[in-house]
Please model this.
Amino acid sequence: MSMRSAYSSGGKRNRTFYRPPQIIKCFAYKNGQRDVFAEVSAPNIKLLLEQCTVRLGLTTAARRIFLSDGVEVLLGSDIERGAEVYISCGENFKDPLGSEKSSAAMKKTASWTVNGVVFEETKKKKMKPVLSKRLRKMLAQKNRRVMVFKNGCGQEMAEVVVTMDKFDTFLDDSTNRLGLTTPAKTAYTWDGTVITDLHDAPKLDKCLQPSTTPVLGPLWISKGEGFSPIGGRDFLKAVIAHCREKIHAANEYITQLDYAIDGEKEKVTMTKVLSMDEDEIEQSRKENENKSDEYKAAMRKLKKILKDVDVMAKEEEAYGNEYRLQHIKQIESNDRLVGQAGFKIKVFQNGKSDGEELLYINMRELSRGMGGEKAFIMQRLLDQIGSRFGGACKPRRLFDKEGSEIDNVYNLENDQDVWFTFGENFKTAHVYSLQMSFDKVKGYNLFGERNAIMKEAMLSDDDKKEGYEKASQWEASIGFPMIYEFEDITMQTNASTRETVISNLKSQELDTKSHFLQNKDDPNLVLYPQISVEEKKKWNDKDLWPHHSQTWIINKSGNIYCKSMPSMAVTATEYKVATTLPDKTELNGFAVGVQKKMVGNPAQEWGFSPEGFIYSLAQPSLVLTFIGDLSGETEAVSVGDSDRQYKGQTCYIAIIEKLAARHAEAKRQRWAIKQEQTSNMGQWKHSKVDNPVWNKLAYSWPVTEDGTWNEEFDWPMEGYFIAHAPPLKKSAAKSAPNGVVPIRLRVLKNGDRDVRRAVYVVGPDLTNMMKDINRTAVNGKRPHRKKKSQEFDDAEADAMEAEANRKTDLQKLEMQLFLDRCTSLLNLPFAARRLFTKEGNEQFTLTELERDQLVFVSCGEFWSDPKLSKSEQQRRFLLANLTSDIQQMRQYCALRDPIDLVMDIDGPVQPGSRVIVARCCLTMEEREELERERGKVPPPEEPPEPPEDPLGGLSDNDAYATHASFSSAHARSHVKSDERYEKMKKPWERNDGNAGIEEVEDANEVEGHDYSNQELYKKFQPKSKLSTRRISSQKFEYSDGFIKLQDSDLVLGVDDCELLECSEVVLCRKRVDKINQRWLLMKDGTIRANSNNEIVLGVSVPYFKPGDSSMPSTFEGQPITLQIHRPMRYGNANQKWALDTNTGFIDAFATDTSDKEITAANKAHVCTHAVLGHTPIEQQGYIMCIPNTSRETEAILFCVACARAMRGYQKLERLDVETEFSCAMGSAKEIGLRHLRGCFQCLNGKVDLSTYEAESTLREWEDQLKRLRTVTNARTIAREIGAYQPVISVRILAYKNGEGRTQPPELIIGSSICGMLHQCTHRLGLNSAARRMYTKDGTLILSKQDFIQWAVEHYMAETKKHSKSEQAKQQPEEGGHIKDSLPSSKSDSQDGLNSALRDLVLTAESNGEKIIERQEKPAKPARPSSGKNTSNLQRRPSFGSGSDLRKELTLHAVLKSPVEMWISCGEPFVKPQTVDKLRAISSQNREVRAGVSVELDKEKHVLRQMQGRRTHGMDYPELVPTMDTENPVLVEGGWTQPSYQELQKSEQVKRLENDYQMMKQNQLRDDPNLTSSPEVSSRLYRQSQMKRVYICQNGDNLQRALYAWGENMEQLLESATSRLKLRNPAKKIYSTDGRAIEDFDEIEKDQVLVVSSGEPFKDSKGNKQEIERKAEWGRIRKKEGKHATDITVTANKSPAVEVDAFGPPGLAIQSNGMEEETVLTTQAPKPSMDF
Model:
């Protein structure tokens, strides 16, 4: 039944619809938890469970509900509103507080015992113990935990659980727990007691136990070695420290409790104490006191044990590892168990006295399996030595201390010192020096009969008192000192003492006549000095007394005395000595000792011979000789007089006759001086010694080759006297080495500071290759030498040179292989390429390095000193990169223009001589003269007449006269004559009066300037006599395929049978059957081999390594080699030749400049883009494929230099097809290749090395490098280098100044003003260097920035004019419509133009927009740049507004078209309009004079015809007789006398000429633009009006004023423009107070003036305010918008004053009724503040 039917029925209404529903609202918790809950509301239990499942995040559905008392809820009515319920997923109820309640109850009633937890007996229920089953099982089995350590360790503890009765099991478990490599054998306590039963193991106190169950130990487990007390000591120290911490903590807690008891709660910091009552505090205090007492007792016990253990630990540290082996019985060496007796030896490396290794040799093992072969046994011993020292090379020879080789193992002795080598000869490990030693002297009076003295032991420490080492404490005595107390020896003396003295006198007695040293403080202390040779020690060695007893001083008088005792000098005594050397050579001579220094004693004066000997001037035939033994095993030679020998007076040094140079003991007579003091370090470089070994050892020799003292040393000389020195002169005979020793070095990465990361790298073993080289000679045999003094023949010299070259190649191979090993062992990212020592010196071979020397390897970068800071390393790295780039540019500049190089012969003209290129022995003038003498070249023609010049280089005043003179050939001849006459004058004699100091200096520099006529001097000057041999070696001829030396049968060829690349070309005997001597001269300039057309002759390029700081090399002197022909157009200039058949010279580099520059760039590692820019040329290149935006590969072309720099970083392929391209590195920024590295380190794309810019670019960067070297901040250096933007080239159309546009211009492209002026000098053919550059409006251009600024302004002006004209054409004729179509505001358009202009000028170079290329048409780049529309670059864009202007205006569009420039050599600018006007006037005047000129020519022609007919007729004259006795006959008529008509015609011609000249003068006088030039001679009498003033720019600070000079206002303004480098010419001059100066006479000398370009005067303050106002204007526009400054301020007039608030100050006066002031006030314009 529906609801509608229910309502419609008449029954009673159901009231259940009005009852509110029952809602269950409670807080639900997870079962057993109190931390997760949710407030839940639901109408019934089912929905409540569903919500609880979601709200509580249950993993399964909620199924049961419990109340807090555990009663399960079944109905919703059982849950009160806001009750807490627990939701279960089906499990029973869990009380969330049940565990805490039960634990608290159990803690109150339970206690811990050994058997577990024990509860109170009152409890009826037996509680379950909480101990685990494993622990209960252990307790039942009586297992115990034992604390164990490794023997000698006290920190890494391990616990072992064992049964007390099973000790072996305990040892096994200890082995496993401690990880021992061998089974444990013994257990020790901390005092070393051996434990065999665990019941005897110690136990720590209860307070130190880690748990309730006691732990045994600690015990130390040994594998069989003795006890090490160090582990026990460490353990005890750690436990004692733990006790201290516990005691300290307990005391702190007790202190807090005391504060609480005393009521000082503010001092209590522990919150726990504050919550305790008095009983708890008292109980806690007692517990902590007991705990502290327990720890103190335990600590006292442990300290007592530690005291004994520490003593044993110190003994172990003293004995080392032997301490643990004391329990092992030592077996004697002769015991039968040992077998054959072994021995130990000390092994050293060859040439070293430290780093020895003890080697124990077991002869039984060494000789096992060898069958008694001594050689095999010796080799096995050497293998053992090699394994001990390590390394890839094995020792090959063994030597004893004396250098004798040991080849039998059985000759070795126990504790013997031996040295091993890798095949080389023995090098002594010690250096021996001359030393002064002192013995104490004791004097005795023997039975009252005589006094005797003898030596005693060396000075004891008691005798060496402080200050006794000074020479001032000792006095030298000749003979034994008189003041001395002799000890009496009588019969009453003790018998033993008496016998001892008498026996010692027999062996130690000294001569009382010798020289002694007596102490000034203690006269009974007497020393006997003597000299010997001992091992060299440092001056501060503790064994030396005095410290400088090995340091000797030599003066120019020849005295040699010790530094420690300057009063004693080396003296040749009269004691004769006789000794026998080890080689049985008997020597006789005189002993050498030290005696008191006496001036003039010849026995104390010594000479030094150039052969390396020291001789006495008393006996020059005897030289200083060491006759002792360095080993010290033999006794010294005793000396004495003729009466008796004194055994105590020994001799080690004597003067003996000179031994033969090849004598085995000749080294005993060779000495050297070693200077190691700081004051004389490096003095050895002044030695004149041939033997390089001396330089390597830094030895010095005081005389030169002629035997005189070397004045370059610092005298007197000071140093060590080294015995057994090498000979001064290197022996001519070479001993071939037995092998090459592979060197082992310690290698680190470049810049690495941690020496511990050094890796040992062993070089390659090239012994066999070296042996092959040593055996190589002419035809496999050494040439036979008849006499030692005979010079080597040519074959032997060639063989030695070839051997030296092969050795050099072998050293390079060794270096390369060593670097390859470094690459792999050091895990370098790239191949190792350079090697440095720790001092930063680069090594190119391994020959100068010592074994185990520390070196650093790099992948090509520069040396990075690890001792420097990171910032300094970065600074040096940046400067090194910049230096490398500049060095590459310097090398390029040295190679780019090889001039006047021809083929030449190196050395004598004979077969085998090399063919090189050298500078031609003749100058260009001499070569032309030589060609003319042969009649094959016509004499040089006169230079063509210069084009008609309206001004002729003269001023405006002289222009007319000059142009008039070019009207006829006769006039031009006069001008040429005057010019030749002017050239003959000195510069100061010329009429122009403009010769400056520079011209005078140039004239003085000319050769023969003292002569008045230079042409005569050059004609008759003495000719230099050229070397006939030099000329003959440079003349060749080509015939029948042979390139033959003129007047000789020698031709060009090669030594090898085959034509190999890089083979040098030499002179050979002509052989028709040898095809390798035939060549082909090609039209392209190459000389190709007839047998192989791919082989051509080329000049060898000098080797250049990037980063090399040496002077750049040139092509001069380089050999000519065979090379593979390079077919490209550019880059092979060294393969181009030209044979001059007239002179016989073969010119090298016979090609154009571009080819030379590209070749030089490839060889100097310079990018070709820096040379020719974007011009595509045919050159050698490489291809790199990169993906573009369309996911396709695109080919990028690079030049050789850039590809070489990218090798190893990018994948490149050689370009085999002849293609014209420009290197993409120049436009890498535009095409998105910034990550690539080019040939330069930091100057890629920032240099211009074109023909006229290279030198200036190099100078600029060299100056920058000098400046940057003074900068200490690396970031500043990087920022300044990075600030340089890519080169922007500009184009100009260059005209000569004064010619206007009458002559065709020259297109000049350059990147600097200096370079363009240089080009203009050559291209325009100027007589002197171009100095100034003017625009068409007369603006002087001083820098490229000025040029760009002017070009932009001119472009803007032309664009604006063009835009207006276009707009005017598009407007309708009605005026109203025109007005509506114009821009709404003129200021808006002007603002747009000015803003665009400013943005372009300021950001053109900062954006690096290099758009101008160095060719007529822009070359298509390797990769087109996206986003730039280049289609509109050919037309001039028009702009409507400033915003459009900024979008379309680019520097490319501005500089695309060349700018007209007028080049001046220093003269003022002449406007083109002036030239055109002068030409028009000149043309008009010529037309006016044309009629007169034609009539004059006609009359002259008639006159010449009349004269010709008269002379041609040859009419005879008439002879008329007279009455005169002197002249009886007169001659009348005839062909020599002009006729009457002819005379009349001549008069008519003269009148016409005078009329013509008068007409020219009238034209000159009537022309208002021209005035007559002043007389030249008047300049000699005119006094100069030159004034020097100080000038500064308008608005600039007066302190920045500069000097300027001028004779008038024009010159002064011009000088100011040049000096101040103004953009616009200076036009006005003001004084410092703002007064304008119009007259030059108002200017005083040294006056300070202000110059402006037309603007009003402003001081520095006003300039500053203007700058601030502009800056504020810019800030407002930037912050508020462009229209923020478009405001107009309007003010109302004040009714009281009736003036404008913004009007002039003078109008702000109260009106007095004057009408004029009122009118002025009311008509004052309202100011408009438009910015």
